[in-house]
Amino acid sequence: MIKTVSPSPLSGPLQVMPSKSASHRAVMMAALAKGETELSPLQLSRDIEATLDCARSLGLTAQADIQPHALPGFVCARISGGQRAAAGHARILDCGESGSTLRFFIPLALDGRGPVTFIGHGRLMQRPLEIYEEMFRPLGIRWERTQDSLTVEGRLQSGQYMLRGDVSSQFITGLLLALPQLPGNSVIRITTKLESRAYVELTRRVQKTFGVESFWKDEQTLVIPGGQRPVSPGAAQVESDWSHAAFYLTAGCLSSAGPLILHGLDLGSAQGDRAIVDILRGMGAIINRQGDALTVCPSRLQARDVDASQIPDLVPILAVAIAAADGESRITGAARLRIKESDRLAAMCAALTACGADVQERPDGLVIRGGRPLHSAAIDGCNDHRIVMAMAVASVLADGDLTISDAEAVAKSAPAFWEEFEALGGHAR
Fold it and tell me: Is 47 among the residues known to form the active site?
């Protein structure tokens, strides 16, 4: 699907959608926990639906009871967890295009109850999984990978696991979900700098809600006591999404109208992407807190270098903000973005260059000389939700229409994006 987006300032109020990262973790803990858990609010993006479906396919839970939420566009999910599939039951888990779903479920699939086959779509099965393969090889785990699937079989054991922290924190979260339920204590030793540490802390915070604990022995060593059984808290609130809010915080800075007011964000969140506020303020953005809302006003932005190693999901929209800023900026520490839904560094370089921005691609980032006007262009959305949303926001800077391909990709994380965009004054057809 192609969307033609016409230049128009964005302003007005918006209730920020539930965090996709927190939703994944909450759904999985509810599926593992004994008892019924009511999760709210949720937004049924394709990724969250994949996690719900995989929890059912693995035999952890039955079909979730989905009901409308008081906030329009969101739902409440009642999940009865703590179930176990019968041994030998054929289990095929369709992860869609969700890297979190795939990497979170692999350790849980090693329950000694027969093979589990994971399938994926798009670029999912091309994304790195070798960290797990290397860790599990000494355990005699069956590991059969094809272009479109992965089959695993065996039993995960408590013990010491050593892994790199500069590929994806999702591998650590996968182990954190599975190891506490095993009989003995376990240790995760991280052999490199841990990137996206905030996502690990988000996992630990959600687990604590379900009575599951872990602790850092030092900066590189995470200890997981064994024999823990998750217990439902009855109801759990899913916090709003800072990754998604970043698109609108940036839009508010770049628009000629204002203000744009975002409701529901937790400034004390464990989500690393809350760093967007400090980054934009450091560039000159006018962002104020008023009660439970953040208000962002049109702002003159200045160049700023950004190390994205802890905030990779922010890079597409940061590239747009930096393209509008006066001066030269560098985004570094973002090499992992080449193995996302698209090669996001190449995709953003191509998209912004097509609009007239001065962008150079580097192995681990981008160099952007900002402040140049953007013009009408055809944009390849690369079937990547974050590229599509970032370039929709970039339209507020353009002197003509941006035609963006693969506009339906937003459903992966934010199915209501185009409705939100238009409600704030955007023009897309």
Answer: no
Lowest mean pLDDT among 79-93, 142-156, 366-380, 385-399: 79-93
CATH class of 3-16+241-428: alpha beta
Question: In this predicted structure, what is the pLDDT of residue 292?
Answer: 79
**Order of strands across the sheet with 186-190?**
160-163, 186-190, 221-224, 215-218
pLDDT at 285 over 80: yes
Residues 20-225, CATH architecture: Alpha-beta prism (3.65)
pLDDT band with cut points at 50, 70 and 90 for residue 305: very high
CA dist 104 and 303 (Å) reads 37
Where does CATH 3.65.10.10 sit in the chain? 3-16+241-428, 20-225
Q: Which of 47, 273, 313, 401 is catalytic?
A: 313
Q: What are 392-412's pLDDT values in tens digits? A: 999 999 999 999 999 999 999
Residue 351 clears pLDDT 80, i.e. is over it: yes
